[in-house]
Design brief:
The chain is α+β, with helices and mostly antiparallel strands. It has 3 helices and 11 strands; from the N terminus they run H-E-E-E-E-E-E-H-E-E-H-E-E-E. The protein folds into 2 domains: 80 residues, Alpha-Beta Complex (Type Iii Antifreeze Protein Isoform Hplc 12); 119 residues, no CATH class. The radius of gyration is 45 Å and the shape is elongated.
């Protein structure tokens, strides 16, 4: 074979190999770039973190999130350290600014109180606490019972009214964690989340009346209009026929007497009195 032809074929083979290698590298780099989306490194929970915990460096880790990060995601650990947790966090969950208390608010129960609201403590017993099932995160109505001041109603006795409705429970006793299993727990004090006006009413009711908490479904947010009731109403016979009110017979009005007129008549030395029932009529 001609040596010149062999050299040409060898050069062509080397050039083709080099071109194939370059094309393969170029296509491979583009495919790897397209397959790898843009990611953002955010701060996440290193383990399960309970409500009220003040975050430290050991509670935090980082994770990569593809695409845009969630709204309010914390990107630097120093923005989370020292802040209280106002909602339970779970391992691997990105930490959002809305799940943390404000800077300097600390942890515990105070950090869970929204701006403009108050935590009002109510002393409870086994009955008032709905047999221990009032736990943090639940919703209750507040009933008060007693004798209204200035009301004289000996036949009715004590009265009961619904003071507040759909009130959130912040804590039960010293526990501010939600009970996931719904187990009853006997407590002496329940903290309710109320407005300042509601706190005044609840504080006065605690001192002057007997308070009872009524458990309600958290999804039921309707405010009912209840008139209240009294002890006397509990013993009313609901099946008895209605009593017709006694109406006294109306007496006919007496006919007014006709006006009378007296006239003194002097006839010489004689004196006479005459009486008339009406002008022109003589008796």
């Amino acid at each position: 074979m001609n040596r010149r032809l062999v050299s040409i074929l060898l050069c062509a083979f080397l050039v083709a190999s080099a071109c194939a290698f370059l094309v393969n590298r170029l296509i491979g780099s583009r495919m790897s770039t397209a397959a790898k989306p843009n990611t953002t490194r955010v701060i996440a929970a290193a383990g399960d973190i309970k409500l009220g915990t003040v975050l430290t460096a050991s509670n935090l880790t980082t994770m990569e999130i593809a695409g845009a990060p969630p709204k309010g995601a914390i990107l630097k650990p120093e923005l989370a350290i020292g802040r209280g947790v106002i909602a339970d966090l779970y391992q691997g969950e990105p930490i959002l600014d809305s799940r943390l208390a404000a800077v300097g608010a600390g942890g515990g129960l105070a950090a869970t109180i929204p701006a403009g609201m108050r935590a009002c403590a109510v002393k409870v017993d086994d009955v008032v606490g709905v047999a221990g099932f009032v736990t943090p995160g639940m919703r209750v109505d507040v009933l008060i019972s007693g004798n209204p001041p200035g009301v004289v109603a000996p036949t009715e006795g004590s009265q009961v009214r619904t003071l507040l409705q759909n009130i959130a429970v912040l804590s039960a006793g010293t526990d501010i964690q939600k009970d996931g299993e719904g187990k009853p727990k006997q407590v002496q004090v329940v903290n309710l989340l109320v407005t300042p006006d509601q706190a005044e009413s609840l504080s006065l009711a605690s001192a002057q009346t007997h308070i009872q908490l009524v458990l309600r479904n958290p999804l039921d947010t309707e405010i009912s209009k209840t008139p209240g009731t009294a002890v006397g109403n509990l013993f009313d016979d609901k099946n008895a026929a209605p009593v017709k009110p006694h109406v006294a017979p109306v007496k006919a009005a007496a006919k007014p007497a006709a006006p009378q007129y007296f006239i003194e008549v002097l006839n010489g030395a004689k004196r006479d009195d005459q009486k008339f029932n009406s002008p022109g009529g003589q008796q």
